[in-house]
Each structure stands twice: as structure tokens, then as C-alpha cells.
Amino acid sequence: MTKVFETKVVAIGPEAQDMIDEANMLILFGEGAPADLAEFCFAIDNKNLTGSIRTGGKVVIDDQEYPITAVGSVVETNLGNLGHITISFDGSTEGSLPGTLHIDAPNKVSIKEGTMVQIFD
User: Fold this and answer.
1) Over the stretch 22-64, which tens digit does the pLDDT of each residue have?
2) Are 117 and 26 in contact (CB under 8 A)?
3) For the chain, which domains are there?
4) Residue spans of beta strands (DSSP E) within the chain
5) pTM for this structure?
6) DSSP alpha helix (H) spans, 1-115
């Protein structure tokens, strides 16, 4: 597998952990997220996408690997342009929203400042 994206969490909005706990998803956004959205986001320091994101790839959060089960139609565009995607932990095989990446994460995912997020195709 080839790494196509790597970033580090540099800031955490006050409501971001609630999105994981209550909605089973995390929202990544590059620096400069709109204020009304930033409070729900994990801010990241990179938006350099070097390849395609595909079903069957994997997301690695720190040292935990999660298989990619569905990729929304604008995930790559949004990640490359804004550093913005939603990662849903529901394991759905059908993309719900165009900007959502679905992964199979049966256990709660823990994100903190300094957490590394990588995507492999």
C-alpha cells in the first residue's frame, strides 16, 4: 500500500470530541476553517494529497488501522483543497454524503493534539 496523505492534528475544537462520542464521526479541516465549523473540527497541518483514496485502502490514526469502506465523491477534492473531510466510523459500504470517508472502526477512536492521520490506497 502507498501512503497518499499524512497530517497531524494541531488544534481541537471544543465540540470536536462530542462529534466522535455522539455522532460516531470526526471532522478534519485545514487551518482557516470557518469559525462556526471550527468548533466541531480537528484542525490539521497539511492538505497535500498525493494519490487516490479508494475503498479497500486504510486510514491509520496514530497506530490504529481502519479499513476504508466507502469514499464520497468529493472527498479527494475537499481534502486536497481545504484539508476538509468527515470520517465516519460506521463501516458503511455506501457513501452517505459526498464529503464523507467511511471506515470500519468498531472501537472508539481517540484523537488528541499531535495525533497522526495517514491514508493509504
Assistant:
1) 999 999 999 888 988 999 999 999 889 999 999 999 999 999 9
2) no
3) 3-120 (2.40.33.40)
4) 3-12, 25-30, 42-44, 58-61, 64-71, 85-88, 100-103, 116-120
5) 0.95
6) 16-23, 35-38, 75-82
